[in-house]
TrEMBL record:
This is LIM domain binding 2. Residues 247-292 are annotated as: Disordered. Residues 265-292 have a biased composition (Low complexity). It comes from Catharus ustulatus (Russet-backed thrush).
Length: 333
């Protein structure tokens, strides 16, 4: 009897323990992925090298992901788009410009689900960066962030588009009180340390990406085939030229079947004889027209110029083809 009672109590305790457990979700929310990215950025150390940044980008961005930044500077609006291979370096340049902490805050974001992707549209996104140099400053960059996640277990970012509207640089009151009697320091504190919330390191890198982004094909070819830069450029240009001059593929047409009409036996013989006479008359007219067009209409030689990439016997790239009055082609170099 005591054994039975003990077994029942164990069963009741196990059922209560199971009832308090929550089922693990099959897929996390898109905003939680931004929270995980913020935690990963906070775990960065001063010794984080390129391998760490590559692992960071691999965890949160797809292999064909793109990152776009849009903002307006003194000389006009700017828009920079970089590919997956340049994304790790972009985040590292943020910290190289004196930033010690970086995280994103999303408020009132809207989610839309598609067949293979999830789109997050946040009109009140704030990128917060904590600067340790040249002075202790907190920069809040506000704008609109549009993210597209893949609808799978990894839920990585496919497109990142951040449109910056405004920014604020916040200096602690304690620092202002310490240098209240020093006008030179106060003047230095009144100057902005960023441009639209971005450091000079990041802006210079984005300008450099304008040159680096088109060269990604050359770099990948050099890494894959171990070719020289000149050979990589030649092969890329040749393949691009081939794609330009290649004729578009014509759609396949289904053969049309013609239905033969049945004719009366009495009129078949007369129709066949009339058809033969008409065909012979047409063939005579065609041959006469052909002879007329070659002999009478073109009495002189008509030279047709054509260029070829293969040099002739004398090394020239162009040769001429002459048409004789008899209708024969004669090639002249």
């Amino acid at each position: 009897m005591p054994d039975t009672l003990q077994l029942c109590m164990r069963t009741v305790c196990a059922s209560r323990t199971f009832s308090y457990r929550r089922h693990t979700p099959y897929m996390v929310q898109p905003e939680y992925r931004i929270y995980e990215m913020n935690k990963r950025l906070q775990s960065r150390t001063e010794d984080s090298d390129n391998l760490w940044w590559d692992a960071f980008a691999t965890e949160f961005f797809e292999d064909d992901a793109t990152l776009t930044l849009s903002f307006c500077l003194e000389d006009g609006p700017k828009r920079y788009t970089i590919g997956r291979t340049l994304i790790p370096r972009y985040f590292s340049t943020v910290f190289e410009g004196g930033v010690t902490d970086l995280y994103y805050i999303l408020k009132h974001s809207k989610e839309s689900y598609h067949n293979s992707s999830i789109t997050v549209d946040c009109d009140q996104c704030t990128m917060v960066t904590q600067h340790g140099k040249p002075m202790f400053t907190k920069v809040c960059t506000e704008g609109r962030l549009i993210l597209e996640f893949t609808f799978d277990d990894l839920m990585r970012i496919k497109t990142w588009h951040f449109t910056i509207r405004q920014y604020r640089e916040l200096v602690p009151r304690s620092i202002l009180a310490m240098h209240a009697q020093d006008p030179q320091v106060l003047e230095q504190l009144s100057k902005n340390i960023t441009r639209m919330g971005l450091t000079n390191f990041t802006l210079n890198y984005l300008r450099l990406c304008v040159i680096l982004e088109p060269m990604q094909e050359l770099m990948s070819r050099h890494k894959t085939y171990n070719l020289s830069p000149r050979d990589c450029l030649k092969t890329c240009l040749f393949q691009k030229w081939q794609r330009m001059v290649a004729p578009p593929a014509e759609p396949t047409r289904q053969p049309t079947t013609k239905r033969r009409k049945r004719k009366n036996s009495t009129s078949s013989t007369s129709n066949s004889s009339a058809g033969n006479n008409a065909n012979s008359t047409n063939s005579k007219k065609k041959s006469a027209a052909a002879n007329l067009s070659l002999s009478s209409q073109v009495p002189e030689l008509g030279a047709l110029q054509s260029c070829s990439l293969n040099p002739g016997r004398d090394g020239a790239l162009c040769h001429s083809t002459a048409v004789t009055p008899t209708g024969q082609f004669k090639e002249k170099h």
